[in-house]
Amino acid sequence: MLYLKLALALAALLAVASMGNLGADAPEAPDADKACMPSGGCCDTGGRSDMPKTEDEFKKKLTPEQYSVCRLKGTEAPFTGKYWDEHAAGTYRCAACGEPLFSSETKYDSGSGWPSFYQPVAKANVKEETDTSHGMERTEVLCRKCGSHLGHVFPDGPKPTGLRYCINSAALDLERAKSEKK
Question: Which of 26, 39, 52, 111 is the most buried (most CB within 10 A)?
Answer without folding.
Answer: 52
